[in-house]
Design goal:
Elements: H1 9-32, H2 40-69, H3 76-105, H4 112-137, H5 169-178, H6 183-188, H7 195-215
Helix pairs in contact: 1-2, 1-4, 2-3, 3-4
Length: 220
């Protein structure tokens, strides 16, 4: 398994969605345009090939999704979201398999019933994709690392030439090194003083002693 991927499902699912969506579009265009239009033959090839190849990818995607369903870490809410996505995906896959077989068997122009069934399948595909996105982006399924957020989406500004992650580690350490600290933090932090720093500390103590001496009532 590639290090950046928890499973192969995200690799195949985009091909499935793209191919089957275009199959719906090409079949719809084929039905709308006149029967003797010059693009009918091309649309027929594109519609059928996208449907068949897309269904093949859908089967592979479903298999990869099944392994993901049984392997990714999850809690109760994410399990419910994952199960709902799985159920819609299996229903959608079953309908597209039937449509692919139907497409192979019909020799003439697709019927209105076929087009209606294909549009319904396209709606199921969109719903399944939406639920898959919810499972990942809302519940974090299959996500290895979530970055620390620094604002509401991108409703914040960066300095010119800066953005998330533009500073190097050395620059970040340098910023922390020069960050001012309170006197309490200074006292608690292990550190060393050079001669000038020590002299400054002695001068402060002498000043405090002199001030205390001046404020204390005494007789001469």
């Amino acid at each position: 398994m590639i290090e950046i991927l928890p499973n192969w499902h995200p690799v195949f699912v985009h091909f499935t969605i793209a191919l089957l969506s275009m199959a719906v579009v090409f079949h719809l265009l084929k039905a709308i345009l006149p029967a003797h239009n010059e693009y009918q033959a091309t649309l027929s090839i594109l519609a059928k090939s996208n449907l068949l190849i897309g269904t093949g990818f859908a089967i592979i995607t479903a298999i990869a999704g099944w392994f993901a369903y049984n392997s990714v870490a999850h809690d109760t809410p994410s399990h419910l979201a994952m199960t709902e996505h799985r159920n819609w995906a299996l229903l959608t896959l079953g309908i597209f398999i039937l449509l692919a077989l139907w497409s192979l068997l019909q020799k003439h122009k697709g019927t209105l019933l076929f087009l209606l069934a294909l549009l319904i399948a396209g709606g199921l595909l969109a719903t399944t994709g939406w639920l898959g996105g919810e499972a990942v982006y809302r519940y974090g399924l299959g996500v290895k690392s979530i970055p620390a957020s620094s604002g509401e989406g991108h409703a914040h500004q960066h300095k010119k030439g800066e953005g998330h992650g533009t500073k190097t580690a050395n620059q970040a350490m340098s910023d922390n090194h020069h960050k001012p600290i309170s006197e309490t933090e200074h006292d608690k932090t292990p550190h060393q003083h050079n001669d000038s720093t020590s002299n400054t500390g002695l001068n402060k103590e002498e000043h405090k002693t002199e001030k205390s001496h001046n404020e204390t009532p005494h007789k001469h």
